[in-house]
User: Fold this.
Amino acid sequence: MSHQPVSPSPDIVRLRNEGYEVEIRGTHLLISHVPCVNAARQIEFGTLVSTLALAGNTITKPDTHVVHFIGPHPCHKDGSIMAQIQHASQTQTLAEGIVVTHSFSNKPQNGYPDYYEKMNRYAEIISAPAQSLDANVTAKTFRVIEAKPEESVFNYHDTNSSRAEIEAISTKLKGQKVGIVGLGGTGSYVLDLVAKTPVDDIHLFDADVFCQHNAFRTPGAPSVEQLRTPPLKADYLAEIYSRMRRKIIPHAVALNAANVHLLHGLDFVFICMDDGRPKREIVALLETGGASFIDVGMGVQVGDSNLLGIVRVTTSTPRKRDHFSKRVSFADAKDDAYSTNIQIADLNMLNAAMAVIKWKKLRGFYQDMEHEHDCTYTISENQLLSDQAQP
Assistant:
C-alpha cells in the first residue's frame, strides 16, 4: 500500500467547510462530535467512521453505504433504538487507533454519489433526536482541525481557499521559496500576506531589533512587556507567523557582499530596504541567478500641514530588467534628498499589497493584461500608474 498521504476530495472538503470535525486517518474518514441520544435519553457524542474507496491516493465514489460508529447506539428521543439504521453491534478494530462499536445501514436507491452525501446524511439522522432535546447541539462545530506536515505548510487547514473554491488557483503559489529582505513597515506587511499563501519556505532577513516605533507600522499589537526587552525583528515576526504556518526561517543578519549568498536558491525575493549599497549586491546576485524580484519604496514628505508622496513597486524578471536601475535608487537612504523616512502604516500596507498582488500576477494567480514592471501610487492625486510593460 502507498505511504503517500491521501488528499481530501472536494466532497470531503465540503464537509470540513460546513463545520464538521473531519479527519482522514489512513484509509478511513472520521467525523467526530456527532450528537446522539443514548438509551437513558441523555445526549452523548460519537464519531462516524467510513472506509475510503481509493484509486492510488485519489478518493473515489463510496464503495459501500455502511458506516461505522464509535459511541453508544443512537436512540430516538424516547430512548428506543433507531432500528431503521441498525446493522451490527460489536467492538471491532478497523485500524490502529480506530475501534468502533456499531455499524449502520441506510442505503439510498442509487447509493451515495460521494462522501459528503453519505456522511452528512448519517449525521443528520443520528443528530435529529438529540437536536429535538437540545436545539443547540450540533456536529458542525467549526473546531480547528490541525493539518499534518505532509498535508500542508499550514498548521491548520486553509478553509478560506476551499470555501471560496479557489484551491486550484492557490496551488499556483505552491513550491516557491520566497525571501523578504527588510522587515520594517512594508516588509512586515509583505510577510503578513505571503504567510497566508501555500509557498514552501519564507526566509526573513533583517538584523534590527523590534523597537517601540516599529509597533506603529507593523501588523499586530506587541505588548509593553515585549517592547521592554526588544527582540530581533526576524525572530519576533517568525515566532508570530509560525503560529499559523511552518517553514518560516529567520536570518537576523544585514545582507551585504559577504553574506548575500544566503539568497541563493530562492525563487522570488521582496526587497523592502532603503540602503542602496547592499541593495546593489542583492540585485546583482538575483539577476545573475535568473531570479525574479520586487523592490518597494515610498517617498513621503511633509507638505502644507499634511503629507504627500508616492508609493512605488518595481518588478524585475528575466524577461525585463532594463528599467530597474532607472526606477530604483542605489544611494543610501541618508544620502537621498527625496527620502525623509516617513513611515505610515496604511501606506506600508498599501505598498506591500501592491507588491504581493504583482507577485501573484507573475504566478498566474491573478489575471495580468498589462504586465507592467513599475507601478506608482500618488497620494495627493489618488493616481495609480502602470509602466514598463514587458516585451
Summary: The two ends are 50 Å apart (CA to CA). Confidence is low (pLDDT under 50) at residues 335-339. The CA atoms of residues 154 and 245 lie 4 Å apart.
